[in-house]
Amino acid sequence: MNRSLKKARSVGSEIVEALQNAVAYAKGDHTKGRAHRVLVPPRINVKQVRRKLGLSQNDFAEKFGISAATLRNWEQGRRQPDGPARVLLTIIDREPAAVQRVLLSR
């Protein structure tokens, strides 16, 4: 058996095992698999994130797929980013290049 086929079977077996563990965990068997809690920051300083990258509001909005009007509302305190937006902004703050790689790899 060639090496790439062995690797594919190994990866496939790991995926199947992980799915079985997830199902068992969901059914209450906490001896299989692990659950991770994601800590979403309750607030984020959007203007600080944008300024850290040295971008204008329009450039930041375009680069990360956010409405410029929404970005202005966040920065001016008229609205607060919801949970998923706070997660995205946190990732942009910590790993902007990773976000760009993902968004540009369509």
What's the arrangement of secondary structure elements?
Layout (H helix, E strand, L loop, with lengths): L2 H24 L19 H7 L4 H8 L3 H8 L7 H12 L1 H9 L2
Q: Sheet with the most strands?
A: none
**From N to C, what is the helix and strand string?**
HHHHHH
What structural category arises from helix and sheet content? mainly alpha
Overall pLDDT: 88
Q: What is the CA-CA span between the terminal residues?
A: 34 Å
Globular, elongated, flat, extended or rod-shaped: what is the shape?
elongated
Backbone CA Rg: 20 Å
Helix content: 55-70%
Low-confidence stretches: none
**Total number of helices:** 6
Q: How much of the residues is beta strand, in percent?
A: under 5%
Total beta-strand segments: 0
Question: Any descriptors?
Answer:
mainly alpha; 0% strand
Describe the structure in your own words.
64% of the residues lie in helices and 0% in strands. The chain is mostly helical and 106 residues long. α2 (46-52) runs parallel beside α5 (83-94) and α5 (83-94) crosses α6 (96-104).
Summarize the structure.
By secondary structure, this protein is an all-alpha fold. It is built from six helices and no strands.
